[in-house]
Amino acid sequence: MLNHQKIWDNCLSAIRRNVEEQAFNTWFDPIVPINYDKNVLTIQVPSQFFYEWLEEHYVHVLRDAIVDQLGEEGKLEYSIVIDKGNSKSEPYTINLPTTQRPDRKNSKEGTNTSQDKNIDDLFAYDFNLNSNYTFETFIEGDCNRLARSAGFAVAQRPGITSFNPLMVYGGVGLGKTHLAQAIGNEILQHISDKGVIYVPAEKFTQQFIESVKINKIQEFQNFYNKIDILILDDVQFLAGREKTQEIFFHVFNHLHQSGKQIIMTSDCPPKDLKGMEERLLSRFKWGLTADLQQPDFETRIAIIHKKMQSDGINIPEKVIEYLAYSVDTNIRELEGVLISLIAHGSLMKKDIDLELAKTTLKTIVHDIDAEVSIDYIQKTVSEYFHLKTEDLKDKTRKKEVVIARQLAMYFAKEYTNLSLKSIGYHFGGRDHSTVIHAVQTVNDMYDVDSRFRSSVDELKKKLKMKSI
Ligand code: ADP
Ligand code: MG
Q: Are the C-beta atoms of 445 and 454 separated by less than 8 Å?
């Protein structure tokens, strides 16, 4: 018998692989499966906003997971908790089935072995561009001015400017994929008969490997030789892959000689690309290399405004400034924080104000620093001593349990921001003096007992690994 909890747990494992951790925690953790009947899985979401957000941003991920679990007939139904703002009235739920799943080509039917896989399977991959990634939504700032205007010039006259190839490089989350796709989208809007192909270098590599397996290298090469505009994302992925580089070299030459446009992105400048053939690297430098830098404060503000506008959300100016001020690493992270903030507001039924922004940011920055959580500490320590996590929380006074418990408390004090009181709370409601005692004991034993010391050091390593 299929049970809703089990089905949903399986869905979650698949979803977890497909979305970023922060998004997973924000949007999928709070979901509760409540029923399964006649191919329909019902999940409860905390608010209307949640439902809309999931349907807008994660509908494919959800659908794929559901189809994997329940087959093509499977359906998802949302039960939305409506809070009428009156604490006495019970929340009531409304059910909304997801829109019908569009038929996908080449879905998992039959049992294709690699022999009868044909070249269509190889290119069944969706080369389409994300329509949100346009120049219109790409905010210009000092950090990206050159790359952006070169990209725009290329989009107006692909293959004709001297920016061929155009190589955009920059750290994670700084807009490489967005800009590269904006070029593709712009071309499709103005010169629509061009064949634009966007492909991550990782995908390109996989396709090549597949084509070797089924003896279709020539077809692979023909496919890419026919393209008018090739966008190869994250080219650093080709490092060390000689055969893929070789085929790319030929494709590159063919396209370049035929006046076709090549756009590439990379996480570092070409000269720092390791494991790349020299002849390929020298070609990367033929056109223009432009970098994306970390956005400055004003650009961050502008990006938040743009994002709010496109998602139809309203946030006070003070909060925007606070966010722009606090998150200066990259744009993906900035967007992540903004989204979490909205989700928190919606979850807690609160207006978004500075206070909420501060608490939200604290929990996230926690995640960003990847500080270890108390759960993780308890799990790691109990596994190390071959105990159950519950043992750490119950009353047992067995020596090995006591030591493990004290160690876990000690690490909780060292590695989390929790107060002594809440650490005690997480260990079966012990009081703060027990925690102080544990920390003291561990410190003392560490100094005198060398075996204990090496256990502590080993555990430290395990916990640190997690925080890298
Ligand atoms: P990268 O490919 O460099 O890792 P992405 O292109 O995926 O980064 O960008 C991460 C996120 O930041 C995307 O959601 C993208 O839309 C957004 N973003 C990046 N640069 C800008 C920009 N200049 N203006 C608006 N949004 C941006
Ligand atoms: Mg990218």
A: no
Give the nearest ligand 1 atom to 143 CA: 23
Domain 297-366 in this protein, CATH class:
mainly alpha
Query: What local confidence, expressed as pLDDT, does residue 108 receive?
Result: 39
Residue among 135, 167, 332 whose CB has most ligand 1 atoms within 8 A, to mutate: 332
Q: Is 170 in the pocket of ligand 1 (CB under 6 A)?
A: yes
Rounded Cα distance between 44 and 96, Å, is: 11
Domain 4-101, classified CATH 3.30.300.180, yes or no? yes
Using alpha carbons, select from 361, 408, 368 the residue that is nearest to residue 384.
Answer: 408
Q: Which CATH class is domain 374-467?
A: mainly alpha
Indicate if ligand 1 lies below 6 Å from the C-beta of 217: no
Is the pTM value of this prediction over 0.85?
A: no
Q: Ligand 1: which residue has its CA nearest to atom 13?
A: 332
Distance 293 CA to ligand 1 centre (A): 12
pLDDT digits (tens, 9 = 90+) for 95-124: 666 655 444 433 333 344 444 456 667 676
Mean pLDDT along residues 452-462: 87
Report the C-alpha gap between 130 and 240 in whole angstroms: 29
* 195-254: pLDDT as tens digits: 899 999 999 999 999 999 999 999 999 999 999 999 999 999 999 999 999 999 999 999
- Ligand 1, residue 233: give the atom nearest the CA: 2
Which residue's CA is the closest to the ligand 1 atom numbered 16?
178
- Say yes or no: CB of residue 177 within 6 Å of ligand 1: yes
Nearest bound ligand to the CA of residue 172: 1
In one letter, which amino acid is 359?
T
- C-alpha of residue 333 to centroid of ligand 1, in Å: 10
* Fold (topology level) of 119-292: Rossmann fold (3.40.50)
So where are the chain's domains? 4-101, 119-292, 297-366, 374-467
